[in-house]
Every structure is written in structure tokens, then in C-alpha cells.
Amino acid sequence: MTFDFVGRWLGRHRDRPGITVDLSCGGRVTLREIDGRPVLAITTAPGADGRCEVAAVPLSEAERRELGQVLESDVLLAS
Fold first, then answer.
1. CATH fold for the domain made of 3-72
2. CA distance 12 to 75
3. Which of 50, 51, 53, 61 has the most neighbouring CB atoms within 10 Å?
4. How far is the C-alpha of 78 from the C-alpha of 35, rounded, in Å?
5. Where are the domains of the chain?
6. Contact (Cβ atoms closer than 8 angstroms) between residue 31 and residue 71
7. Could you read off the pLDDT of 24-66 as tens digits, one per residue?
8. pLDDT (tens digit, 9 = 90+) per residue, 57-69?
């Protein structure tokens, strides 16, 4: 999967709720469900051309629960 394809794929699901953490570097980490499966989406800060790159990592249920506990506890993630 290329970053452009993943970005378009995730873009179709922007109306679905998820847990999002904005990073101090300008990037973003989002935990959400896409097509019923937990996914960790990582977005880079905009580059010089204004574009961001996006990657999606499928998670197991155990990984989703563990990561969800961290993201929901208002812990500041270091970038």
C-alpha cells in the first residue's frame, strides 16, 4: 500500500469516531476501527510542499485494548 492510497482509504472513513493524539512535531496518531477492524493511523506533519504522509497499521484486539488505555488516559505522547 502506498501512502497516497492509505490516505485516500482512511479519508473515506473520517466520519467514524476514533481516539486522536496530536504530536508536538505536528503529526497525529489515531486509533480507530475501519471495516470493523482496529487500525492505528499515523499522519506525519506537513512537509515543505504542504502534504502529509499517512500509514495504517492493523492491530489485534489485544493491541487495540492496550493502546486504547494509553491514548484514553490523557497521557502526552513524546514525538
1. Transcriptional Co-activator pc4; Chain A (2.30.31)
2. 28
3. 53
4. 29
5. 3-72
6. yes
7. 888 888 888 878 888 888 889 888 998 888 888 898 888 888 8
8. 898 888 888 877 7
